[in-house]
Amino acid sequence: QKNGVIAITDAGVAPGLSNLVFGKKLSEYDRLDTAKCYVGGLPQNPQPPWFYKSVFSPIDVIEEYIRPARIVDKGHKVSKPAMTDLESIEFNNIGMLNAFNSDGLRSLLDMPIPNMVEKTLRFPGHIQKIISIRDKGLFEIDKIEKTAKSLIKDWKSDEGDYDQTIMKLEFIGIINGERISKIYNLVDYYDQENHISSMARTTGYTCTAVANILLENRFTKTGVYNLETLGSDDEIVQNIMQYLAQRNVQFDKKI
């Protein structure tokens, strides 16, 4: 603020686009009781044994499997082991996916929503193998480097390994005295024409949409902000969503 600088952090897909929607929903509900984010970058054609290919830094993927997951339960911040509370979720045209606790809420932990969780999505069979590796002690400090090198090699994408990004956001709360549930589904695919991964599209286009907001002086407050802060500004949210829709990144909504 002293130097007149504007910084908007975590302007990717999740964190990023998910945060924007969290902030938008908080401003829409009279009382928002529950907010959930399910997200994963996955292969379109999963193959055994891992049913997975890495679409961003493999070290960060491994970090998701070992770092305790912070959630909010009944208004209290709670830390749970990663990969806990495993559940199965059906997605149209994709099938059944596993969802498990991961430490992705970040700045969302400070929002006044009493129940919040972020879960990572994987095809069935993947996380079971990861849990087996952990239980064998291969994520221990003296073995994790060797384990990481092996996984990075196994998860390396080959030509033709097209990815997809899947995100499901769920909100439950009160609007005008009624209990309302809102669900937002995003499914995005590898751009074969331009050879751009879906993870690059959903992350990068959100980032450039936010950059445009700054370049067009639509957001001029100095200091450090995150995307949930921008969520209460309808004009900014609409601008970002339109920018993404023009690039075929958009949510299906269900109320």
Number of helices: 7
Mean pLDDT: 95
Q: Could you say which overall geometry the principal axes of the C-alpha atoms support? A: globular
Structural class: alpha+beta
- Portion of residues in beta strands equals 25-35%
The strand order across the widest sheet is 5-6-7-2-8-9-11
Largest sheet: 7 strands, mixed
Structure in words:
The chain is an alpha+beta fold and 255 residues long. Helix content is 30%, strand content 31%. It is built from seven helices and eleven strands. The strands form three sheets. Strands 5-6-7-2-8-9-11 form a seven-stranded mixed β-sheet, with helices on one face. A two-stranded parallel sheet has the order 1-10. Strand 8 and strand 9 (178-189) form a beta hairpin. Helix 5 crosses helix 7. The radius of gyration is 19 Å and the shape is globular. The model has no long low-confidence stretch (mean pLDDT 95).
Provide a compact summary of the structure:
Helix content is 30%, strand content 31%. It is built from seven helices and eleven strands. The strands form three sheets. It has a seven-stranded mixed sheet, covered by helices on one side. The chain has a two-stranded parallel sheet with strand order 1-10. Strands 3-4 form a two-stranded antiparallel sheet.
